[in-house]
């Protein structure tokens, strides 16, 4: 599509780290740009690990803090809306997207989304925030597979800091945030999603296999509620038997599914 290269929001987390490694291997270091956009919730290890990986792969790397922009947007909202938790979290993601898209426009490079299939499945993502991009390399890759691929890539040459692989995953949009505050552990989540999406098993069949009933119903409810988000996300690779998009088409409104 005549882009000169790609740009990635490098967070210090596993998804952006693997996306960077893939982009580097596919396009070469001269065609990849990375931007770390820290907020007050960004851990110092995230800054350090992002810089370490960018340096190891010899790709360009910039740091653009977002706190001032988030505060300005918060103040522009009426009343106390700007102080609400979910509003603050999503403002951060959307400010980052605005910065990345501005750089994309200015430099003629395509933004790569770093979302994975697990997050896309349950809507653990922000519309017009981390869902933004021209292509998503991990769109059909579950979170447990992200870890496996990162470990595999490091057997070829160690380019993803070990701490990125070992630390508990976090969106870092609020203090002490962890993914499992909101979601089941990824090994459980991915097993339920694979059983339903790829194998076509019903909720009851998945429960009969030994999964907790409440967790199964909650996961499948999130899956169906999030269809409208997936319709607005970028295209990406297909590596499974049933990827989101043409392989699996459902109405954007699925109130008939319960919960």
Short description:
The protein is an alpha/beta fold and 259 residues long.
Can you walk me through this structure?
With 259 residues, this protein is α/β, with parallel strands linked by helices. Helix content is 47%, strand content 8%. It has 11 helices and 5 strands; from the N terminus they run E-H-E-H-E-H-H-E-H-E-H-H-H-H-H-H. The chain has a 5-stranded parallel beta sheet with strand order 3-2-1-4-5, with helices on both faces. Strand 1 (5-9), helix 1 and strand 2 (32-36) form a beta-alpha-beta unit. Helix 1 (14-27) packs across helix 6 and helix 3 (67-76) packs across helix 4. It is globular, with a radius of gyration of 18 Å. The model has no long low-confidence stretch (mean pLDDT 94).
What does the secondary structure layout of this molecule look like, with pairings?
Blueprint: E1 5-9, H1 14-27, E2 32-36, H2 44-57, E3 60-63, H3 67-76, H4 85-107, E4 109-113, H5 117-122, E5 135-136, H6 143-156, H7 162-166, H8 186-197, H9 203-208, H10 213-225, H11 227-230
Helix pairs in contact: 1-2, 1-6, 3-4, 8-10
